[in-house]
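Data card: per-record layout.
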Amino acid sequence: MEALNRSYAVRMQGGEQSKPEEYASIVDALEAGDRFLLHNEVEGAERFYLLALRKAELVERQIEDERKQLEVQRLKADEERREAEQQKALQELKRKQVERQEKEVREARKKIERVLPVKEKERDVRPLPLYHTVKRGETLPQISAQLEVYGDATLWPILYRSNRDQIRDPRRIWPGQVLRIPRNIGREDIAEARRYAQERQLP
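The structure for this 203-residue chain is written out next.
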């Protein structure tokens, strides 16, 4: 009965389909035991029943191992899918941040153009200054916000980094200092400056 129950268990676990040869071997051992039992050869029947029992136990272990492997593979696939979704979401977030920053730059340029007098627009625009002399009471954000500089107070880190030779603390600048104004700045420079300004806000 134990061997028969084991064979039923293997069948219920799908062993008949997933391992047809092994399952057929179990059935053959059971039938051989039945034949010996019909002839009252109990010892021979017990040998085949025991053989069927051991084969069934082996197949059950194989099925369980395969089930565990499939579960591991499924978990790994789920983890890879989640990582891919997170990566996609991160890329989308970065794309939106870049679009927002580009929009802010465009709006800032439009704002500067609206502020400029009509005559200033019509005639050749004078080249922007490459240097700024610090006046009493000025701060780096105030200088950066001036239209002839950048027109944006959050770009003060660009001034700070370009004048590190004479500015140790961005909160302390002195009247009379002549600061360089970098002009060849790209989108990455602007984005980095704004991030830095947000992390370290100046009065």
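Known properties of this structure: The beta strands are 131-133, 178-180. The chain has two domains: 2-76, 128-199.

See the next section for split statistics.
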